[in-house]
Amino acid sequence: MTDLPPPSRKKLGLVIDLDTCVGCHACAVSCKEWNAGGFAAPLTDEQAYGREPSGVWFNRVHSYELEAMPLADPVRAPAPAAAASPCATPAQPAMTLHFPRSCLHCEQPACVTVCPTGASYKRAEDGIVLVDEDKCIGCKLCSWACPYGAREYSPVEGVMKKCTLCIDRIYNQNLSEAERQPACVQACPTRARHFGDLGDPESAVSKLVAERGGVDLMASLGYRPTNKYLPPRPRRAGGEAAPAPAETLDTGALPGVLRWLDKVLSR
Question: Which of 17, 35, 92, 261 would bridge with 192, disulfide CB 3.0–4.6 Å?
């Protein structure tokens, strides 16, 4: 079986915001387009316009209809007497949740340790999990071991494939710095996907996870996925997100001109 490298200080990964994902599949399509000619190419399709189409996709988006439910657990946190009426009791209305799914580049990936040939491996320098197709024998042990369903089998080539975090983009010195991010992140129209070093607590993605309470998917399994999901914010009856707490402006800290302007506009 394949050994894992020592834990790396640098942990490149994705942060996916379930609050702003609209299920447009732009991430899946852009991923397919880029990787059809990139590091893991080709991404083959079978009977694309037939009765039973199948193909290799590194990103997939699932949509779920959630039923309405109370925001607070009435057993653990009883509602106050003032909120006894149905109108006053805070509740989560029914909503559609769009859930993007791809490899989570786990810290303890079962797909790597179960591989009999060393084809599945984890990079020591940045924590990215990859497949060496020259060593892969298509036994599918990695797909059986992965609890997230993130492995893809190509029947045309007889090998396993998976998300590479677009390593041929993020390390490409010929691209501008703004373009050195995974294709799915680049294409997302609602900025629901973020990329960065989750091993650095001062990075933008780590701060975002801390602020929004980002979570590991199926954390109880102990695989310690690098990618994090930001839970949806509570919704009100109309379906819109609850307003964020109002920010207090310290006018004394403003420059003189802005203090004067604030005073004029506040009349």
Answer: 17
Ramachandran angles phi, psi of 207, nearest 5°: -65, -35
Cα–Cα nearest to 31, from 20, 41, 21: 41
Contacts of 229 (CB under 8 A, 6+ apart): 15, 16, 18, 214, 215, 217
Residue-wise pLDDT for 73-94, tens only, equals 444 444 444 444 334 445 678 8
In 3D space, the residue among 244, 236, 242, 243 whose CA is nearest the CA of residue 95 turns out to be 236
Task: Please write the tens of the pLDDT for every residue from 11-53.
Answer: 999 999 999 999 999 999 999 999 998 788 888 888 888 888 8
Q: Is 116 left (phi over 0), alpha (psi -120 to 50) or beta?
A: alpha
Q: Which two tokens stand for residue 196?
A: 């960065």
What is residue 159's three-state secondary structure?
A: strand
| Alpha-carbon span 23 to 29, nearest angstrom | 12
Q: In 10 A of CB 178, how many CB atoms?
A: 7
CA dist list (Å): 181 to 66, 122, 194, 218, 255: 32, 19, 9, 26, 38
**In a 10 Å sphere around its CB, with 0-12 CB exposed, 13-18 middle and 19+ buried, how is residue 111 labelled?**
buried
Place of tokens 């189409």: 53
Pairing type for strands 12-17 and 228-230 reads: parallel
169-191 pLDDT tens trace: 999 999 999 899 999 999 999 99
The three-state secondary structure class of 152 is strand
Q: Is 259 helix (H, G, I), strand (E, B) or coil?
A: helix
